[in-house]
Amino acid sequence: MSAIDIHTRSGGSGAPVLVLLHGIGANAAVWNRMLPVVEGRWPGRWIAADLRGHGRSAHAPPYGYAGFAADVANALGSQDEETVLFGHSMGGVVAMALATGWFGVTVRHVFAFGVKIGWTLDEVAQMKGLAARPARVFGSRAEAAERYLRVSGLAGLVEADAPEALAGVAEAEGGFRLAADQGVYAAVGPAVGDFYRAANAPVRLAAGEADPMVGLAEMQALDPQAALLPGLGHNCHVEAPERVWELFEETIGGQASAGPP
């Protein structure tokens, strides 16, 4: 499968480059509340990608961790540029895949949070069944936005008319649908531990204390230094971006900074 050009947002300048990778069904707009922190405290360039089949990137199956990683590597361009990866949920697995070195990216650190590690066969089958369903078309943009917020776990955190919600919606024949291709939900599975062990860069796992996707014991089975963020849920980067960034800074040491004086 060939890499495709994916939609990205970027800012900053210099090295190292920070890559923000969203979870399944979401898109780069989920980082909107994090970006002011990134702009103020990251010393180099940053990129936030819409993974293949998500947001404004093309619907181009098949979908999988390796394919997403290849697209991101293609978007980065230079293979010599040192990269730090900041991935949420499925984006954390894509980050681990990139850190294997198989895609030509020089990765210095991976910070992966909210990553579901344990997948049962029933859970995988349910997700593949969801991926096979036709995309639902809604009569209004507002209805589609409400649905996007529910399936992405952002309901109660983001208003339906906010840019983060509207970025999850696209026009369709007869109305509006979710921007993500329905088929992306097949891009799940139990290979998370394999990618973690294959990574050639330090990987730190973290999650919100109330994240239903993963617990501390599961994370510590891979990363003994895994951490919980008290009082936060799955989308902790939306709930409390500065707290997530502080843990990220602790993880990578002096690589992040307090910004220019």
Could you walk me through the main structural features you see in this protein, from its secondary elements to its overall organization?
With 261 residues, this protein is of the alpha/beta class. The chain has 2 domains: 8-131 and 183-255, Rossmann fold; 136-180, no CATH class. It has 10 helices and 9 strands. The chain has helices at residues 35-41, 65-76, 90-98, 121-132, 141-151, 163-166, 192-198, 216-222, 236-239, 241-252; strands spanning 8-11, 17-21, 46-49, 82-88, 106-113, 169-172, 175-178, 203-208, 227-229.
- How is the largest sheet built, in terms of strand order? 1-3-2-4-5-8-9
Number of helices: 10
What order do the SSEs take from the amino end to the carboxyl end, as H and E?
EEHEHEHEHHHEEHEHEHH
β-sheet strand percentage: 15-25%
How many domains would you count in the coordinates?
Answer: 2
